[in-house]
C-alpha cells in the first residue's frame, strides 16, 4: 500500500479519496437564490435550497445552473464538469444577470454599512506580528534607482577642471562625463519604490476556501500589506488589483488613494470576498500578470515590484507554466514574482518546478509572507540590474 501511495503521489498521513462521477439527470432551467433553511441542514442535490451542494439552479457549491456561489459550511459534493458545461446559454445569461444584481447589492451594502470592528480585528489578530516584521523590512530598504550624474576619473569625456595638475603630470583619467551610477549605501531615495499586489479573485478562491482557507489567507495577506505600508508613502507607493474569470484588472486600491483607516481597509477585504463569490467562472491570470507588469513599467520609480497571488489552479484552464514564467520575466524594469497561497494536493509544488528560479514561492500560512517578501527585496538589492 505504501509503495502504491508513493507511486501516485500521496504523502504520508494524507487521506485517500475515491471520486464517483455520475449524471444527475437534472436540468438547469431556472436560476434562483433558493429557499433559506434556518436550521442550516446540509442539502445535497435537488433545486430548492440556497447553500446546498451538488444541486442545480440554486446558489450553492458544487452544482450547476445556479446564479452564484454560496458556502453554507457543509461538505461539498461536486457534479461532473460535463453537466456544468452543458448548461444552455440562455440559462447562463439569466444566472449572470442575477449574479450581477446580487453583487451590486452587496457592494452597496458593504459601502453603506458601519465599521465592523470585531470582523476587522479578527483578521488583524492573525497578522499583527507579521505587520511588525514587514515594517522592519521596509525600514531597511535602500535606494536602488540609478541616477544620472557626473562620473569622474574617466579616460574620455569633458576635461575636469579639478584634474588640471594631474593632466600636466601625464595622468590619463582626468575627464568627466554624464552617466548612470548605482547609489551608495544609505543614499536617500529620490523617488518612491512602486509595488503592485495582484490578487486572485477567481471563483475557485471562494469555492475551495472551505478546503484550505485560501481566500481568507489572501485577505489576510492584503490586510498585512495595507497595514504595513501605511505611512510609508514617500518610500513605497502601492496599489492592489484583482483578477477573475470576468476581468483582469479589478481596481481595489489606487496608488494615489490608499485606504486611510480601518473601515476603508475592511471595505477592500469585503469587496475581494464578494467579487470571488459572484464573478463568472474562468481565469485571467496570464492577462492580469501581463497587464500589471507592462502598466507598472511605464511609471517612474526607484524600483518596480509586481507580486501575483494565485491559487495554482492552472490545470483546469490549461494555463501554461512556461508561458506564465515568460511573462514574469518579460520586462527588465519590473521585478515580478508569484506567490501560491492555495493548492489542491501538490499543484503549487509542481508548478514551481516549471517557473523561473527565485520568482515563485508557496505560502500556505500567512506568517511566512514577510520572510518571502524579504527574500524578494533582498534578491533585487543583491542583483546588478
Low-confidence segments, ≥5 residues, pLDDT <50?
none
Q: DSSP strand (E) fraction?
A: 15-25%
- How many domain units? 2
- In the CATH hierarchy, what is the class of the largest domain? Alpha Beta
**Average predicted local confidence, pLDDT:** 88
Number of H- or I-type helical stretches: 13
Protein name: von Willebrand factor A domain-containing protein 8
Biased composition (Gly residues): 48-58
Region (Disordered): 24-58
Domain VWFA: 194-376
Description:
- By secondary structure, the protein is of the alpha/beta class.
- The chain has 2 domains: 86 residues, no CATH class; 195 residues, von Willebrand factor, type A domain (Rossmann fold, 3-Layer(aba) Sandwich), CATH 3.40.50.
- Helix content is 38%, strand content 15%.
- The chain is built from 13 helices and 11 strands.
- The chain has a 6-stranded mixed β-sheet with strand order 8-7-6-9-10-11, with helices on both faces.
- α3 runs antiparallel to α9, α4 packs parallel to α13 and α10 runs parallel beside α11.
- The longest helix has 24 residues.
- The protein is elongated.
- It starts with a helix and ends with a helix.
Amino acid at each position: 500500500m505504501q509503495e502504491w501511495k508513493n507511486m501516485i503521489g500521496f504523502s504520508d498521513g494524507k487521506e485517500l479519496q475515491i471520486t464517483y462521477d455520475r449524471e444527475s439527470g437534472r436540468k438547469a432551467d431556472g436560476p434562483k437564490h433558493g429557499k433559506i433553511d434556518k436550521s442550516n441542514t446540509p442539502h445535497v442535490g435537488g433545486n430548492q435550497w440556497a447553500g446546498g451542494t451538488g444541486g442545480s439552479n440554486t446558489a450553492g457549491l458544487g452544482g450547476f445552473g445556479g446564479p452564484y456561489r454560496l458556502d453554507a459550511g457543509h461538505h461539498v459534493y461536486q457534479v461532473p464538469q460535463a453537466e456544468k458545461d452543458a448548461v444552455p446559454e440562455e440559462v447562463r445569461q439569466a444566472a449572470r444577470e442575477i449574479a450581477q444584481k446580487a453583487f451590486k447589492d452587496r457592494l452597496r451594502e458593504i459601502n453603506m454599512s458601519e465599521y465592523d470592528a470585531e470582523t476587522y480585528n479578527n483578521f488583524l489578530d492573525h497578522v499583527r506580528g507579521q505587520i511588525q516584521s514587514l515594517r522592519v523590512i521596509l525600514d531597511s530598504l535602500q535606494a536602488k534607482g540609478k541616477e544620472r550624474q557626473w562620473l569622474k576619473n574617466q579616460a574620455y569625456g569633458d576635461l575636469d577642471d579639478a584634474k588640471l595638475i594631474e593632466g600636466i603630470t601625464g595622468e590619463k583619467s582626468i575627464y568627466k562625463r554624464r552617466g548612470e551610477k548605482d547609489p551608495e549605501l544609505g543614499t536617500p531615495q529620490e523617488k518612491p519604490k512602486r509595488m503592485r499586489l495582484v490578487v486572485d479573485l477567481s471563483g475557485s478562491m471562494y469555492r475551495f476556501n472551505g478546503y484550505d482557507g485560501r481566500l481568507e489567507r489572501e485577505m489576510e495577506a492584503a490586510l498585512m500589506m495595507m497595514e504595513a505600508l501605511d505611512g510609508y508613502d514617500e518610500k513605497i507607493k502601492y496599489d492592489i488589483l484583482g483578477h477573475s474569470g470576468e476581468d483582469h484588472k479589478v481596481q481595489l486600491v489606487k496608488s494615489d488613494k490608499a485606504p486611510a483607516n480601518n473601515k476603508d481597509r475592511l471595505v477592500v477585504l469585503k469587496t475581494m470576498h464578494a467579487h470571488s463569490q459572484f464573478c463568472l467562472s474562468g481565469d485571467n491570470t496570464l492577462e492580469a500578470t501581463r497587464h500589471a507588469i507592462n502598466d507598472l513599467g511605464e511609471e517612474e520609480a526607484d524600483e518596480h515590484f509586481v507580486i501575483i497571488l494565485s491559487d495554482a489552479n492552472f490545470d483546469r484552464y490549461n494555463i501554461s507554466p512556461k508561458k506564465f514564467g515568460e511573462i514574469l520575466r518579460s520586462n527588465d524594469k519590473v521585478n515580478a514574482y508569484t506567490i501560491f497561497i492555495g493548492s489542491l494536493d501538490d499543484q503549487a509544488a509542481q508548478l514551481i518546478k516549471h517557473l523561473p528560479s527565485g520568482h515563485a514561492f508557496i505560502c500556505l500560512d500567512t506568517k511566512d509572507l514577510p520572510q518571502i517578501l524579504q527574500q524578494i527585496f533582498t534578491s533585487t538589492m543583491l542583483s546588478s540590474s
